[in-house]
Amino acid sequence: MDEFKQPGQTQRHLILGGDGFIGRHVALLLARKGFSVTIATRLPPNFTFPDVEASRISRKSFELASADWDELVKDVDVVHHYAWSSIPASANANPAGDLLLNVSATIGLLDALRRKGQGRIVFTSSGGTVYGKVNRTPIDEDVVLRPITAYGAGKVSAEIYLSLFRSMHGIDCRIARISNPYGAGQNVERGLGVITTFLHRSLTGEDIVIWGDGSVTRDFIHIADLAACLANLAIAPRSNQFIFNVGTGLGVSLNEALTEIEKVLGRQLTVKRSPSRLIDVPVNVLTIDRICRALGWEPQVSLSAGIDNTIKDLKAGCSFSSLI
What we know:
Elements lengths: L11 E5 L4 H12 L3 E6 L15 E5 L7 H5 L4 E4 L6 H6 L1 H22 L3 E7 L23 H20 L2 E7 L1 E3 L11 H11 L3 E4 L5 E2 L1 E3 H13 L7 E4 L5 E2 H12 L5 E4 L14 H7 L7 H13 L9
Helix pairs in contact: 1-7, 4-5, 6-8, 6-10, 8-10
């Protein structure tokens, strides 16, 4: 995927959580386009970046709870804030700890950019949790935020501080409310990514678990499309709009996703049905008109093509999507 713009004045990118699912793909795209990229990670990555000069991507060690933000941001033009310590289940189990660590770290980063006097930050929020239960879909960016999980509340809190520092101190904050990404490199052991988890279980012979009757509907975006969009967003000129939904704009139920997977695999899968969960919003589909207009971007990977690609990548043990 190479539809995003060529490098301009901004050349140096710091990716917090650069070893994560989203971070590694954005880092690879930016490096391939000639940008200097530093990934900040807690531990050394357990993978290597393919087809990239070693000099293009460097690494710094950091911890959210004790990061030296001034040191981390001093030599970079764009900070990609993809590091978040929790998932919805863990945040609900410890909402105070989730808020203290993740939102405090975000404020610390913003303060460092304020002291620096300049800077751009791209923050990955959660289009799947910040909106909560809504009366109609697809959901646009101006809908009142009513999260029903601690994870969503934490993301909303971070968004509020990003907006505050943008208005008070002129920091170029950009917020991407991401739908439901999937693809090779996603950590299914943490329960992340419905599509990727379904595919992983289908290949390992494990039961696929669906909570409720399978009518829960989501907006699934392939990592190749998401990474291209975030890379585009990071290098686009500053504008008055800075909050964007990122997805496909199409809703797919869990049952429909399962049917599509079975079509691609050519066999029926074993499914275990469990009672529905209160934390699951019935329908979450995002409008993407704003980001498409702003960047001249649109998703390219259909669900069937994305599933087919992810199956091949999982079988090959890939850490990156081969569509990047």
